[in-house]
Amino acid sequence: MSAAQAFELIRQEQIEEVNSLARLYRHRKTGAEVLSLSNDDENKVFGIAFKTPPADSTGIAHILEHSVLCGSQRYPVKKPFVEMLKGSVHTFLNAMTYPDKTVYPVASQNEADFYNLATVYLDAVLFPLLTEETFMQEGWHYELENPDEPLRYKGVVFNEMKGDYSSPDSVLRWTTSAALFPDTTYGNSSGGDPKVMPSLTYEQFKAFHSRYYHPSNAQIVFYGDDNEDRRLALLDEYLSRFERGERAPDIPLQPRFSAPRSVVATYPADEARKANAFFTLNWMWDEEADPTENLIRSVLSSALLGTSAAPLRKALTDSGLGESVLGGLSNYTRQPSFSAGLRGIDPDRADEVEALILSELATLAENGIDEDTVEATVNSLEFRLREMNTGGAPRGLVYFTGALSDWLHGRDPLEALKYEEALAALKSRLSGGERLLEDRIRSLILDNTHRVGVLLKADTEQGVREAEAERAKLDAARAAMDSGQIGAVIETTKRLKMLQNTPDRPEDLRKIPTLTLEDLPREITRIETEDTALSGVRTLFHV
Question: Is 65 a catalytic residue?
Fold first, then answer.
């Protein structure tokens, strides 16, 4: 069977918004889904994503993201991507853990380099070594160098998340998510809570990879000017080595609250200041498949908070109740959320912040948002959509993550890449006099009982208490060990340090693909410039 025959073409469409011929495939043997975007962009992108909903806050998906990049069957070196950096001209190389998925994207303008990167990534995620030493190094382990020292926790992700949980912004984010989505995977800390992480076992870690990192649970994107047959051939080389498995189940919907709730939490602070608390009001919105409605929600968020002149932002700023405004639309979860609040408030005045937010929203719902503000917001949205200025990120990566927002939850990824029809409908309805934003303020916010007020207060003693609790936990673990177990921890510590300091074998390093001089173009890329006049002004347009 040829590579093309190994895939079933589900749908094909030219999508002008992304200047691409889009083909949606399904791998016949495994059911892996592939979105192939063919266009004239030389900055080619490959990405593979897996739905990875964590059942707890051990950080299992985050640890696995780190660990699969620590050597694979075909490339058995400790850090294959670090080695690749020495001979690559990539424009993007990373991996990201989200609350419900893990994504592995790469990009390069050089085709040989691009396929080198894609091959190493496919081998990494589908055939990682995942040794117990890797789990301990990237996740967590007990560290002890001699019997007279105190026991310690060590691990790359463990240390990273200890730093994350010392940041008030991160604590606010995790607290809010847990409060808004207490009954779904979004209520867990996908990055990992350092207090929970040491309960994760190597067996659970391996089982998570076997369950979720399977082609049947994969969604794959290719984007750029490379040949589609070559894309499919590379994928079939890897995917066909598997039998069909099961897709991860749908992320369940969070049941709605019948009445608003409130949460008070604390974060570790270095100094005692009165105005160092955070307060936000947060609403869960229902998931929405209609593209026009999703644009309305984006416009609403921007019109309320997007600029210094936006009415809700201005009201919060002018109140003098806090140092800076927080909030906006968050749509990385199946059911999106909207929040508004202030950083740097007196915790005793949180009720005033809440009352101000609700009062200003009620006024806007009744009297309307200034027409110029709405027009400017829609114009800015249209400009962003058409310009698609992604900064340093490849466009294909932005399209990939945008498609995943629908694709992951069983909706059409091609529709997620379009906006022209929805934008036209939005502008037409606004010009026709519909009170779209005012009605949404009422239905999505004011009348929405799935609301949580989160007050995050500074606690100068929390850091000390957490350190003492960790020390007590470690001391109890050590007290439960006999001399043989203590000796085993010491030996494990020595073995990990030795592995970290031992260089990879030259024969394994030679397996890492690198560019050669023959792979590099001999001529520099020349960007043509058109010298024209625009309204009498000399204009240089770079083609």
Answer: yes
